[in-house]
């Protein structure tokens, strides 16, 4: 399986795939935190490490099977100020949407926090 992970952090998506006995042929990680990348690279040195999702050309991953990620959640979290998309970090969600449109993977998984229900 070919996997691309956005907001990869320390590589928990890779760990979950491994623990689920899902064979990974190629794993591409997008993460800007250098310390998180160091941890991920320590455990998975053969994976490909890229930088900022905002600068990525996702069309090169058209043949990928799985897109995973969890965009920053501080703007949506009950623990925060619940600014939703008025929090500048929250707009990174739309980078996941852009990747989804450009890659068109067979599967995708977006993880985030429980959010309040507005207008329901």
Give a structural overview.
With 120 residues, the chain is an alpha/beta fold. The chain has one domain: Rossmann fold, CATH 3.40.50.150. The protein has helices at residues 12-19, 34-43, 93-103, and strands spanning 2-6, 26-30, 48-50, 66-69, 107-110. The protein has a five-stranded parallel β-sheet, with helices on one face. Strand 1 (2-6), helix 1 and strand 2 form a beta-alpha-beta unit. The radius of gyration is 15 Å and the shape is globular. The mean pLDDT is 85.
Topology-level CATH name: Rossmann fold
CATH superfamily: Vaccinia Virus protein VP39
Domain count: the total is: 1
Q: How many E strands?
A: 5
Strand order of the largest sheet: 3-2-1-4-5
Mean pLDDT: 85
CATH architecture descriptor text: 3-Layer(aba) Sandwich
What spatial form do the alpha-carbon principal axes imply? Answer: globular
The gist of it:
The protein has helices at residues 12-19, 34-43, 93-103, and strands at residues 2-6, 26-30, 48-50, 66-69, 107-110. With 120 residues, it is of the alpha/beta class. Strands 3-2-1-4-5 form a five-stranded parallel beta sheet, with helices on one face.
Question: Could you name the key traits of this structure?
Answer:
120 residues, alpha/beta, 5 strands, 24% helix
Secondary structure blueprint with pairings:
Blueprint: E1 2-6, H1 12-19, E2 26-30, H2 34-43, E3 48-50, E4 66-69, H3 93-103, E5 107-110
Parallel strand pairs: 1-2, 1-4, 2-3, 4-5
